Amino acid sequence: MRNAVIRSVGAYVPERVVPNSYFNELLGQDVDTWLRENVQIYERRWAAEDESTADLVEKAAHQALERAGVKAGELDLLIVATDTPEYISPSTASKVQHRLGAKKAGTFDLNTACAGFVTALDVASKYIRSDDRYNNVLVVGAYVMSKYLDKYDKKTANLFADGAGAVVLTAEEVPGEGLKAQKGFLASELRTEGQYCDWMGIYAGGTATPVDQEVVTAKDHKLKFVKRFPTELNPDMWSGMIRDLCQRIGEKPEDVDRFFITQININSIYATMDLLGLPREKAPTIMHYYGYTGSACIPMAFNEAWEKEQIKPGDLVVFIGSGGGLSFASAAFRL
After folding, report:
1. How far, rounded to the nearest angstrom, does the alpha carbon of residue 116 sit from its chain's CA centroid?
2. Domain 185-334 -> CATH class
3. Which residues of 128-161 are buried (b: 16+ CB within 10 A; e: fewer)?
4. Which residues, 6+ apart, have CB-to-CB distance to 202 below 8 Å?
5. Pairing label, strands 106-110, 77-81
6. How confident is the model at residue 38 (pLDDT cuts 50, 70, 90)?
7. How far apart, in whole angstroms, are the C-alpha atoms of residue 271 and residue 314?
8. Radius of gyration over every alpha carbon of the chain, rounded to an integer in angstroms
9. What is the pLDDT of residue 179?
10. How far apart (Å, rounded) are the C-alpha atoms in residues 87 and 271?
11. CATH of 2-178, one of 3.40.47.10, 3.30.70.240, 1.10.3720.10, 3.40.50.150
12. CA distances from 224 to 93, 131, 143, 203 (A)
């Protein structure tokens, strides 16, 4: 069968390192201890003043393309998953397409907040499976949330950071059929709990609250936690989606070699593994030195596992993303 196979992965983070001590000095209190003990974040990367989302996407894309042995001109489609775009319009993907020289690639941005990368994997895989004109697809998750942070807001500023991660998907004829393919994309699922749409986000700048309204202040353009989400929400949803996905592909959760899960809270990842009765080590974490990088965090974690040879051909991996909206996405691949 024709299937979408992960050919390579790449990632990029800005050079600027922001340690927890930055917030100690900024806020005049000990923030570092809480971050280390409760969420295990020690430092993060923030983009430079003249660095934007397209810059991060381009660098992650170059690495993924080089590792895949695919030239930009051979790309048929470029999808950028981000909720911190280069512009409101046009798409970030169109700018990156021009920079890469991917002249024959169609492009679009995709926004399901921090679930964006896994949602884009779902979309890209189905393009490849259903249309033989799409043989090489580049999917990039990117996040430059530092541009939208109120640096004095402890609920957001010390958690969120910047980065980009990319994968190249290619079309291959592989043994097996449908959910039983022996390599590549197996299955996916998208879910949304829209009742939480106004609990966290950036709520000015769109048509609901245009920038020229007199009531809009500078802080309205910053990321806000409006209400606190239930602690059990992500672990319950993630573990449920994992069980459902495994059942569909005829596997058990314990058969999965690695889980790559949204890196918003290490305790939520641990709780998910505990609910499944699985070793926590099966879900690699990277927030310790990168902070929370939204739609980039899953491909960044995948890239680190790839580089450390913690995953190998034949492994079964599951990607689980969640983000504002609330949006959730899952996808299973055989490497």
Report:
1. 6
2. alpha beta
3. bbeeeebbbbbbbbbbbbbbbbeeeeeebbbbbb
4. 83, 148, 221, 222, 223, 224
5. parallel
6. very high
7. 27
8. 19
9. 76
10. 37
11. 3.40.47.10
12. 26, 40, 16, 8
pLDDT per position as a tens digit, 67-84: 999 999 999 999 999 999
Q: Give the angle 91-92-97 at the CA atoms, nearest 5°.
A: 100
Number of DSSP helices (H) and strands (E) in the chain, helices first: 9, 13
What 3-state class would DSSP assign to 331? Answer: strand
pLDDT of residue 218: 56
Let me know: does 80 contact 92? Beta carbons within 8 Å. yes
Where do we find the tokens 């921090």? Answer: 114
Percent of the chain predicted with pLDDT > 90: 83
pLDDT (average), residues 89-95: 97
Indicate whether 107 pLDDT > 90.
yes
Q: Let me know: does 220 contact 204? Beta carbons within 8 Å.
A: yes
Give the whole-angstrom CA distance, residue 324 versus residue 124: 22
Domain boundaries, the chain: 2-178, 185-334
Q: Annotate 89-145 with three-state secondary structure.
A: CCCHHHHHHHHHCCCCCEEEEECECECHHHHHHHHHHHHHHHCCCCCEEEEEEEEEH
What would the mean pLDDT of 276-305 be, rounded to a whole number?
97
d(CA 224, CA 231): 18
Rounded Cα–Cα distance for residues 101 and 98 (Å): 5
pLDDT mean over 269-292 = 97
Same fold across 2-178 and 185-334: yes
CA end-to-end span of the chain, whole Å? Answer: 16
Q: Distance between CA atoms of 213 and 329, rounded to whole angstroms?
A: 35
Pairwise CA distance, residues 143 & 128, whole Å: 26
Q: Hunting for tokens 């990039």 — which residue is that? A: 140
The label of the residue with tokens 């992960």 reads: 6
The larger pLDDT score, comparing residue 324 to residue 331, is at 331
Max CA distance (Å), the chain: 61
Cis peptide before 138 (omega within 30 of 0): no
